[in-house]
TrEMBL record:
The organism's taxonomic lineage, starting at the top: Bacteria, Bacillati, Actinomycetota, Actinomycetes, Pseudonocardiales
Residues making up the signal peptide according to the UniProt record: 1-25
Organism domain of life: Bacteria
One Pfam family, short name: DUF4397
Species assigned in the record: Saccharomonospora marina XMU15
Transmembrane annotation, as ranges: 242-262
Keywords (A to Z) from UniProt: Membrane, Signal, Transmembrane, Transmembrane helix
Protein name (database record): DUF4397 domain-containing protein
Domain spans labelled DUF4397: 33-147
Coiled-coil region(s): none
InterPro entries named among the record's database cross-references: DUF4397
Length: 267
């Protein structure tokens, strides 16, 4: 895999923030989930020079995190690198915006290049008896279809896009096929879609490398207009530095982009 300088343009995320309801915009904090979908690349995450996540493994999720507004510097190093030493894999300056619920997904492009994509998490109320299923194509793979119970429910999904469905609550068997075919590339997997929840499923990895997989998290408490912050199923973290890390998912940078350097680390 070739590693190169990457830039994650966050216009979509910042636009979503601008369109958020006034009540959400008035909040003093936002919420973020961080999804690690770049294979074979465990990292340590630093925020404002302090180690915030140690040995963050591919195929895992960190969050939810309540985020203080303001500027922060976020740096990723190869896992187990001595504190603040060596060449960072990725560095970004983040200015936290209040009131949104976002995912920041580190993943591969369709061509297998590492990148970072922000997604707005839909945490609107879910109708009674239903659940929300959000599928995200964040893998180095061509367009795919998603089937539930053997029937296509999402067709022609491409990287880096998402599709949301509201479905009857319960357990569903889902798989992923190459678009327009019955060739299964992921699954089947049983998804427990409880009433009043939103489950976010990410396809990660590389088809050519044979390491495609799924990583997901669930946000609960969406039965009706919530009285507080919805709860999530990602791995929580403690301490002020980690709270700053989540800010990456809500950042707005000069020029509307987050830039960093990502290289293969010595083995």
């Amino acid at each position: 895999m070739r590693w190169k300088t990457i830039a994650a343009v966050l216009c979509g995320a910042s636009c979503a923030l601008a369109l958020a309801p006034a009540a959400a915009a008035a909040q003093t904090a936002g919420t973020a989930y961080v999804v690690h979908g770049i294979p074979d690349t465990p990292v340590d995450v630093y925020v404002d020079g302090q180690r915030a996540i140690d040995d963050f493994q591919p195929g895992t999720v960190q969050g939810p995190v309540q985020l203080p507004p303001g500027p922060h510097e976020v740096t990723l190093y190869a896992a187990n690198t001595p504190d603040n030493s060596g060449t960072p894999l990725l560095r970004a300056d983040a200015d936290v915006q209040a009131g949104a619920n976002l995912s920041l997904v580190a993943h591969l492009t369709v061509d297998g290049e590492p990148t970072i994509t922000p997604f707005a998490n839909d945490v609107a109320p879910v109708p009674a008896g239903e659940a929300r299923l959000v599928v995200r194509h964040t893998a180095a793979a061509p367009a795919v279809d998603v089937r539930a119970g053997g029937q296509p429910v999402v067709t022609g999904l491409t990287n880096p896009n998402q599709r949301a469905l509201e479905v009857p609550s319960g357990t569903v068997s889902a798989d992923v096929t190459l678009a327009g075919t019955d060739q299964v590339v992921l699954g089947p997997a049983n998804l427990n879609l409880s009433e009043g929840t939103a489950t976010f499923v990410h396809a990660i990895g590389s088809a050519s490398e044979g390491n495609l997989s799924l990583v997901s998290f669930t946000i609960s408490g969406l039965h009706s207009a919530p009285s507080g912050v919805p709860a999530g199923s990602g791995t929580p973290a403690s301490g002020a530095p980690w709270a700053a890390l989540g800010a990456v998912g809500l950042l707005v940078l000069a020029g509307g982009a987050m830039a960093g350097r990502l290289r293969r680390s010595p083995r």
